[in-house]
Structure to design on (100 residues):
């Protein structure tokens, strides 16, 4: 998947303009709840068992403070609650768009 043309933090949303003129606006609580980090989602061992992770699903007051590119395939988000270990691929971000 090609990288987005532009990414910005606009208020409480991460705004993404994709190459096909599509735009995504994803709020901070949704991004935080769907963090792909091991801290949030857990880790799968060689037998397929998931260990760790968080049972928390509500992040009502959490906002995105900044982001940084990870290669040409993802971004890392830093949230107001200090979480910053999730790497969000372009596919993962697009899957969270409510209009997709």
């Amino acid at each position: 998947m090609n990288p987005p043309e532009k990414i910005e933090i606009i208020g409480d949303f991460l705004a993404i303009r994709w190459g096909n003129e599509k735009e995504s606006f994803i709020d901070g609580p949704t991004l935080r709840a769907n963090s792909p980090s091991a801290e949030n989602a857990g880790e799968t061992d060689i037998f397929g068992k998931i260990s760790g992770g968080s049972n928390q699903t509500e992040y009502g007051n959490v906002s995105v403070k900044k982001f940084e590119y990870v290669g040409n395939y993802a971004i890392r988000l830093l949230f107001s609650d200090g979480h910053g270990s999730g790497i969000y691929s372009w596919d993962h971000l697009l899957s969270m768009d409510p209009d997709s």
